[in-house]
Amino acid sequence: MKTLNYNAGTAAPHHQGQVYCEETGKTVAVTFDDETGDKARLIAAAPEMLEALEALTFYINQDDDGDFFICKEGAQHVKNASIAIAKAKGE
Hints:
By secondary structure, this protein is of the alpha+beta class. Helices cover 41% and strands 22% of the residues.
């Protein structure tokens, strides 16, 4: 998976944010009305969030009572999901 990153919004009037591929430097998305870069940051984090959620769904199980739990092997995937969420939130 290629890593996406972002540049926060530019000056008025459009407040454009840029999402780019770290490996190639190519722009993959431009956001508008994005003064703080929140939209661009969320787009940049989307591939990591998707990958983390797909991995988590593999490790989530349901018992006979209908309760859900994550297997021990899924602990790292929970951590990866938390990291991806933090990236999307700018933390």
